[in-house]
Amino acid sequence: QVEIIQSGAEVRKPGASVRVSCKVSGHTLSQLSMHWVRQAPGKGLEWMGGFDPEDVERSFTQRFQGRVTVTEDTSTDTIYLDLTSLRLDDTAVYYCAAAVLYRSLDYWGQGTAVTVSA
Amino acid sequence: DIQMTQSPSSLSASVGDTVTITCRSSQSISIYLNWYQQKPGKAPKLLIHSASSLQSGVPSRFRGSGSGTDFTLTISSLQPEDFATYYCQHSDSTPWTFGQGTKVDIK
Q1: pLDDT in tens, B69-97
Q2: What is the C-alpha end-to-end distance of chain B, expressed in Å?
Q3: Which of A100, A78, A116 is nearest to A70 (CA)?
Q4: Does residue A26 have a pLDDT over 80?
Q5: Mean pLDDT, residues A54-70
Q6: Is A47–B44 a contact, with Cβ atoms under 8 angstroms apart?
Q7: A10-12 and B4-7: which strand pairing?
C-alpha cells in the first residue's frame, strides 16, 4: 500500500513561485511513476504532467512547460513540484498521484491548496 | 492531444438504480481508459483501470467496458456512498487528459 502525504496550503502573489512536496511511503519513488493533477475551484481535474513509462521520461502539458520543475529526493522518497511565474488562474488544489503497475493513477495525496491572490 | 468527452455532465438517481456514464475519446486509445470517483473536498479514487479492470477493494457493482473510442461506466444498485463526481481519463499517450466529469446526485 502506498501513502502520499503532501505539504500544506500556500498563498502567493502573482509572479511568485511555489513548491509543493509529496512524501511517499510503502514504496520507494523509484518503484513509482509520479504524476501531478490540479483542480481549480469548482472545476474538473487537469493532468499537468508526469512520468510516462512508455517514453521513459517526464513530461508536462504545454501550458506548464518552462514554468515547472520536478525534483526528487530519493533519500527521503519525497518529490517536489516547483511552479514559477504564478498567475491568478493557477489557484487550485494540486495533487500528486502514483502509478504502480498499470497506466492509471492508483494512489493520491490529500491535495495542496495553492491560492494566488494580489 | 486526445480529447475526452463524458456524458451526461450530471444525472439524478435514486438508491438502488442502475446508472450509466459514457466517455468518448477523440481517437482510439485501445483500453487505456481509467475511471475515478471524487467526493467533495477529497482526492479522486481509482475505480477502474484498463477500461474494465476493477481496482482492488472497489465494490463489484462498478463495471467498466469498452475499447477503442467508446467506454462506459455502469454502477448497479446505486448506494448512498456512490453519490459523487466521476471522471474518465485516458493514458494512451501524454498528455493523460480527463473527461469533464459527471456528477451523480440524489433524485
Answers
A1: 999 999 999 999 999 999 999 999 989 99
A2: 36
A3: A78
A4: yes
A5: 87
A6: no
A7: unpaired
